[in-house]
UniProtKB/TrEMBL annotation:
InterPro entries: AAA+_ATPase, ABC_Ni/Peptide_Import, ABC_transporter-like_ATP-bd, ABC_transporter-like_CS, Oligopep_ABC_C, P-loop_NTPase
GO cellular component terms listed in the entry, alphabetical order: plasma membrane
Membrane topology, as annotated: Peripheral membrane protein
Residues spanning the membrane: none
Family: Belongs to the ABC transporter superfamily.
Protein's name according to its UniProt entry: ATP-binding cassette domain-containing protein
Lineage: Bacteria, Bacillati, Actinomycetota, Actinomycetes, Jiangellales
Major place of residence: membrane
Organism listed in the record: Phytoactinopolyspora mesophila
Superkingdom, taxonomy of origin: Bacteria
């Protein structure tokens, strides 16, 4: 983000919840190194939402995975990821897990692959609370039912014995959110949390995330390919293309006065209700993507 303000409390200035400095991700494959995220600088304070928007393959999930410390083995993060002032990239695995296990939560892009098909919802919800909060099995089960109630699945005791394939898309997403907040995180990264859902359920889920952000004082990183969605729900935005940040700033400013032609293209090419152009404008992405330009030159 964009605000550089440091929170000031009675205890004095506090570091922001999350700040990245030149965060980059490289992938090594077949003896080649490719940069898939380049120099991401963002800042997020508790109670606010930052949106990361970009087309498929632009590096949104890799940025989130680098912050969470869950990159695939072929990928390496460089730069800095400060969480409450501590650079997570300098910690060893154990020290990092001690922080990111309970305090950083990730809602995966694909709930069907993130939830275990052979374990009941209850079994999956209970485990992290037993590990990170030290709850007994019974306490964790009680808490699971409360959490499902909190995310809009009331009378959920029966659901604890159900399996992921038995749930609707909206319910799966609510279960993912309940699991994500179960260990009382301070930072929540939601990766395309509503892609496969219809418009009405999408709105309910996003409003739920914002309500939880306010109730629990979370910092929320909201990832989407949809600039319209980000403009409705995020305070600040980062527009990415092929791993590069094209533009960033307060969402209202970026949407009202985009300075980068790629962002202008994204806004102009979004379909709008009540305005049906004969042809939707398209973006010549090769003009803006350093990766596409390099590929063109190599040919
Ligand atoms: N496990 C992996 N191994 C190798 N390359 C990967 C892997 N995961 C992602 N990539 C590459 O990293 C780049 C960024 O991918 P990323 O998943 O961050 O994109 P994204 O913006 O989240 O896209 P989407 O909207 O489709 O989810 C892409 O070029 C992708 O092909
Ligand atoms: Mg992704």
């Amino acid at each position: 983000m964009v605000t550089t303000a440091t929170d000031v409390t009675a205890a004095g200035p506090q570091p922001p919840l999350l700040r990245t400095e030149n965060l980059s991700v490289c992938i090594d494959s077949h003896g080649e190194r490719n940069t898939v995220v380049s120099d991401v600088n963002l800042e997020l304070t508790a109670g606010r939402t930052i949106g990361i928007v970009g087309e498929s393959g632009s590096g949104k999930s890799m940025t989130a995975a680098a912050i969470m410390g869950i990159l695939p083995p072929v990928a390496t993060a460089q730069g800095r990821v400060f969480y409450q002032g501590t650079d997570l990239l300098t910690l060893d695995d154990k020290a990092r897990r001690a922080i990111s296990g309970p305090e950083l939560a990730y809602i995966f892009q694909e709930p069907m692959s993130a939830l275990h098909p052979m374990l009941s919802i209850g079994a999956q919800m209970i485990r992290p609370m037993r590990i990170h909060l030290g709850l007994s099995k019974r306490e964790a089960r009680e808490r699971s039912a409360e959490l499902l109630d909190q995310v809009g699945i009331p009378k959920s005791r029966g659901l604890l014995g159900a399996y992921v394939h038995q749930l609707s898309g909206g319910m799966r997403q609510r279960v993912m959110i309940a699991m994500a907040i179960s260990c009382q995180p301070a930072l929540l990264l939601a990766d395309e949390p509503t892609t496969a859902l219809d418009a009405a359920v999408q709105k309910q889920i996003l409003e739920l995330l914002l309500d939880l952000r306010d109730q629990l004082g979370l910092g929320l990183v909201l990832i989407s390919h949809d600039l319209g969605l980000i403009s409705r729900y995020a305070d600040d935005v980062l527009v990415m293309l092929d791993g590069d940040v094209m533009e960033q700033g307060p969402t209202a400013d970026v949407v009202a006065n985009p300075t980068h032609p790629y962002t202008r293209g994204l806004i102009e090419s979004a379909p709008r209700i009540g305005h049906v152009p004969r042809r939707l404008p398209t973006i010549d992405r090769a003009k803006f993507s350093t990766r596409a330009l390099a590929d063109k030159e190599a040919r």
